[in-house]
Amino acid sequence: MQMFSAMKTSTVAISFFAVVCAAVIAITQVTTKTKIADNEREFRAKALYEIVPRSSIDNQLLEDAFEIQLAELGHKAPVTAYRARKEGLVNTVIIPVVAPDGYSGNIHLIVGINADATVAGVRVLAHKETPGLGDKVETKKSDWILSFNAKSKQGTVDSAWAVQKDGGQFDQFTGATITPRAVVNAVGRALDYFAANRTFLLELPPETTPQTVEVTN
Length: 217
Known about the structure:
Layout: H1 2-51, E1 65-68, E2 79-86, E3 89-102, E4 105-114, E5 119-126, H2 178-196, H3 198-201
Antiparallel strand pairs: 1-2, 2-3, 3-4, 4-5
């Protein structure tokens, strides 16, 4: 009986310990998940407001978000894009773009495009490019990414929209051409998408078909 009682006590203790451990792990996971989500939100907000300064708009970018399918910009699933407004009108849209042809893999960007089809700004969110070379796409490493500001593309085929090595207007990094070429091409695709979907992105009313007036003599 004493052995049975001891075994029962041990089982209860082990079960209690397992329950406590499970609870601690669950609480830690929830807390960590929340903190990670908050950090990601803060990081994204910082990048968005670097493209569109808070002082230039009267809405909250993170709250003016919409889901969009951007297969042509490298996304297999719907992603979140943002609209910046002034007095209710959309003056800039910020869309996520993937450059699949980076030197070390995908380069994830956000591209801000103004209503007049000029680039408001570009920021790299994630990449695996070579430190000291391809990582110059980051603002903390180089101001190269700022060269897109206020630029526009002249149609889907624009020979100037390329790195200088390919006859275009954008500098490439010394010893690294693949990374800047990938980013230039990705931003160009974003501008092409904007041009083809401007009405939807800027929330403009659809163009109305002029009515034909029949004149009788």
